[in-house]
Amino acid sequence: MKSxxxxxxDLHLSLEKTAITRRFxxxxxxxxxxxxxxxxxxxxxxxxxxxxxxxxxxxxIKSALRQxxxxxxxxxxxxxxxxxxxxxxxxxxxxxxxxxxxxVIDLAGMPVLLTHGDLLCTDDLPYQAFxxxxxxxxxxxxxxxxxxxxxxLAARWYRFRSHFHKRNKTLEIMDVNQQTVAGVMRQFxxxxxxxxxxxxxxHHQFMLDGKPANRRVLADWKRDGGAxxxxxxxxxxxxxx
Length: 241
Known about the structure:
Layout (H helix, E strand, L loop, with lengths): L4 E4 L9 H13 L6 E5 L16 H13 L3 E5 L9 H7 L2 E2 L3 E6 L2 E6 L9 H10 L2 H8 L3 H19 L4 H4 L3 H10 L4 E4 L6 E7 L2 E7 L3 H4 L2 E6 L2 E6 L1
Parallel strand pairs: 1-2, 2-3, 3-4, 6-7, 7-9
Antiparallel strand pairs: 1-10, 5-6, 8-9, 10-11
């Protein structure tokens, strides 16, 4: 009987990152297939420009996800800051179920809060302003109405610009704000939070209103070689693909 619950994020799959794509497909076929559920907490893709994009490696990734879902493993996904245009057509093709920006799941009676992590970085005011604009229905419709080639070129420019802007920001600004973390955990009544986005894998333990709380940060697959957070009957461990 499948019992493992797996959590991953920040793979940033793209045509250029062939090794990470191969590692991810191997992970789906040889590890995730034995799990009860897989949660992908955003930025599966380096840039998702619409569900009509079938340029490589997207078809191979969709096929592997579809096979995993057919095997009986439940797959859930949060949109990240790189793949927030991912929609229901992709979900129908792959068998994935899309979650809200904040999602509470139950692990043997323990409520666990999941999010990508970008909403927790409230000190990064320019990014939060861009995020608000980019998640508006008008902005999404404007982008998705453009020809695929235009969107592909725009995605390349966005990745370049994002890299340039990050060089001018401190690590503290791009990390989560602890007051925001505490407020969100209170809002959803959870003492365990799992997220990615910051590329700073760690297990943070702290007190929240007099109770022990946990914040588990997932690894990115480029820097950390394919780390997976696994939960099984109350035990947590980090696995390397």
